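Reviewers of the previous submission asked for a worked example of the structure-prediction workflow described in the proposal, so we include one complete record here. The input consisted solely of the amino acid sequence. No template or homolog information was supplied to the procedure at any stage.
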Amino acid sequence: MYKTSDNLKSKYFRLEGWISIILNSVLFVLKYWAGVATGSLALIADAWHTLSDSVSSVIVLIGGSMSSKPADDDHPFGHGRIEHITAIIIGVMLAIIAFDFAVQAIVKFSNREETIFGTIAWIATITSIFVKEGMAQFAFYAARKTGSNILSADAWHHRTDALSSVLILAGLFIGKYFWWTDAVLSFLVSIMIAYASYDILRKEIKSLMGEKPSDELIHSITEAAQETSLIPLNMHHIHLHHYGDHTELSCHIKLPSGMTLFEAHEICTRIEKRLFEEYGYIATVHPEPL
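From that input alone, the workflow returned the following structure tokens.
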């Protein structure tokens, strides 16, 4: 299994983080100005969504730096789970933003407030779509290269911002015909942000709580281990513990009761070496008498 080096991962964290901070800050100013100029709640909501991307990117930089720290006495398995924690922070931020703008959209709809979109709204929205989708594509690419949950969460943050701008663009076409367009668009944007929050939190909380390996993975691990021995191993009690890039595996095998301690140790060592070479897992194999 290919394992990303800490230097390469840190490089992508810094690059994606700083690109996101700079471009999101520029887009925030552009969209907020357009929202204030036209009185559009949807554009202002979209602007704050964009600014939250900058905040999440600061979290990416901090979390990426801390998660790559080596193991120490207090954290013998490293600091990889900081990635899950920072991704959860991003998810919570999205949930708060979604709730706030859903409430504002309902108030605006109740007051029957109408919005007249101007040229600046078109420019800000179209610019946002292309820039944000480009940022999402780069973040997804960086996430694939590094296997990082933080970068993947940040990519979805960019993607939801791009999609919310697409909704607003559609609203610009019909806004002059219906007074409720801006309020409805604001509510739809809040739903999209809320879904992104749910998706991130669901995955990260599941990872932190621990999840059972798939049947396919267990079968693959069992076969890889069995290839190191001519006698049946009867591998069972397989558990995986994820710490970011670092994964610990523990399992039990059954060996003939007459086998010497040295022979049993040799078999366990071969299994541990094979699982590390094949999957990158740090394995602990516990032998039991058959």
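The radius of gyration is 25 Å. We consider this example representative of the routine output the project will generate in years two and three.
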